């Protein structure tokens, strides 16, 4: 293994074993801006960001953000592409230290909020919301934004348009009432399995414990297995 990479890994593992109390990572990584950018890409929604969007999200100076992005691109942590004269940055999950960095950033303190979904609760009584599909590179997902609750259709449509304007592409979104969600859970609905069986990122989760996706889908799987065993006896 490359000596520099091995040394970096040992350092990260040492940090990772520290207390879960907020830790001033800028003292190790050398830059508050760099810490914020790494936090955004490792703990936030896994989607492409363009420079000015990153600048607004981390609330740092444009030149400082550009400098740190160049560094992170150079070491292979971030991949880039250009579309409509904008340069987009996204995390490269094949980066050797990705898992360690994500773990450290989650333990070190609060993440960087993705302003893209900041006012989602204003579209109605949102009990649950998650992003998948485009936002998490989950190609098999049937939607990009999934919402459970009672929402105002016009407000949700405008919310989605605002997102599309910021990321320069169309997204699909699916609202679902609580009654429909309960109904679909009862027969292990394909739509729900495609979302929660893949990669997704929760934005809001105010569901009762037994109806939270991780708990409900896990229990449903157990019931299906139990029914199959019973039938085979």
UniProtKB/TrEMBL annotation:
Alphabetized GO MF terms: DNA-binding transcription factor activity
SMART domains xrefs: HTH_ARSR (SM00418)
Domain HTH arsR-type: from-to ranges: 27-100
The name this protein goes by in its record: HTH arsR-type domain-containing protein
């Amino acid at each position: 293994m490359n000596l520099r990479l091995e040394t970096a890994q040992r350092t990260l593992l040492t940090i990772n074993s520290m207390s879960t109390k907020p830790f001033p990572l800028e003292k190790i990584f050398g830059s508050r801006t760099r810490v914020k950018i790494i936090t955004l890409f490792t703990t936030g929604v896994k989607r492409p960001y363009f420079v000015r969007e990153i600048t607004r999200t981390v609330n740092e100076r444009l030149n400082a953000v550009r400098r740190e992005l160049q560094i992170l691109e150079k070491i292979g942590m971030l991949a880039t592409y250009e579309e409509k004269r904008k340069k987009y940055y996204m995390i490269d999950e094949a980066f050797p230290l990705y898992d360690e960095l994500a773990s450290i950033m989650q333990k070190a303190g609060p993440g960087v909020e993705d302003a893209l979904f900041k006012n989602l609760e204003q579209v109605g009584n949102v009990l649950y919301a998650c992003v998948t599909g485009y936002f998490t590179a989950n190609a098999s997902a049937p939607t990009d934004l999934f919402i459970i609750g009672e929402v105002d259709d016009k407000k949700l449509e405008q919310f989605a348009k605002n997102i599309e304007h910021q990321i320069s592409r169309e997204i699909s979104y699916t609202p679902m009432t609580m009654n429909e969600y309960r109904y679909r859970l009862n027969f292990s609905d394909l739509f729900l399995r495609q979302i929660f069986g893949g990669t997704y990122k929760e934005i809001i989760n105010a569901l009762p414990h037994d109806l939270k996706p991780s708990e409900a889908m896990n229990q449903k799987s157990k019931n299906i297995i139990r029914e199959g065993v019973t039938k085979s006896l």
